[in-house]
Amino acid sequence: MVGPLAPRVLGECSGWVSAQGYSQGSAAGIVNLLRRLSLWMQAVGAGVDDIDEELLARFIAAERSREVVCVTVKTSMGAMRRFLTAAGYLRVAEAGTAAVTPAQAAVGQWCSWMRAERVLSEKTITARCYYAAGLLDVLIAVDGSVAWGRLDASVVNVYVAERGRGYGVASRAHIVDAVRCLLRWALSTGRIDRDLTAGILKPAPARRSLPRGVDAEQIAALLGVCDPGTAIGARDRAVVLVLVRLGLRAGEAARLSLDDLDWASGRLKVTGKGREHILPIPVDVGQALTDWLRLRPDALDRAVFVRTKAPRQMMTPSGISGIIARLSGLAGIEQIHAHRLRHTAAMAVLAAGGSCAVVPEAGYRYHIRESSISRVLHLHHVEAMLAGDRRFLSRFPLTGAAAAAQRRRTRSLEEAHVFLTLVQ
User: Are 267 and 278 in contact (CB under 8 A)?
Assistant: First the structure.
């Protein structure tokens, strides 16, 4: 081995590709490309400290100028770049030092306000900036400043209509929410002198219908194309059963950790929407999880469901949903995504006669009509009532008929909590 990368950097790369879970062939291709880079660097008189994006671009150009281009230039360049970055040999390009514009400064201040005053998550802040920050571009004056005086309801509505073009009802509602948030910040900080939120157009309401589930034949078809004798087949079968039997969201399934499985009690912890829930593990789900975990490859994290290809790490929510879409294609049925399986779990409760009556005389109930489900009770309502009952009972113990009535109420609330966890 020759060149400035031999033998230390090449040795580090061999360890890195092994830890990432690359197959023997893929790992050999990555190391081979790094060896070619080392030889080329020796030829042009470059050292380890000279590695940057410009040097890599010159190397790629030199490789592609050959009469026969090595296939690893196409297949392994990305992985080699990731190794060089992870090992500290390739520095991430620093952001430009261009001056911040007034509009960019305003967006930054709005983000700080959302964090400090509204206590919003970074994901929500990013989404609101994506949808609403463009409104400030409409207000840019000739000198580059933000002309807040131009802002009125007509300007806002033109922006909302244009920004929502091509989006569905749900996304257009997110745009309106983001713009409202921006206007509230502008009002609270004195940038505008009147509340414009009341004049913003609202998107047409969505035509609500009952959630579409998946029938037993379709579920059987999905499971039928999973080969439990292979790692990927065992994983996919476990994903299907977790989604359809427990009603998890794709993101909740993706975030499941090995530490969330309590085999002793037969329960698992689910985290999602800022809440934690403890759910029982049905026998068939437990068997599927056991079959998968026996074949699960060593991974970079402790996620239950991991990629079978390098880098072996936690699957993304889109990856979980993509499994269901791929299986439906293999099974020759209509394309199905993960949330349809969640709906299947909820609809099974309804089909079995499940209701959400908490206190019948108070009217708290899931009203099921022919074409819609009207949610008059939300999960946080149930949680608040349970918490309030616990505080009351800690101070005022009940006896006799009152205690029996309270037990019925608590049981009904707990059933409602399980049901709403599935459908909300």
Answer: yes
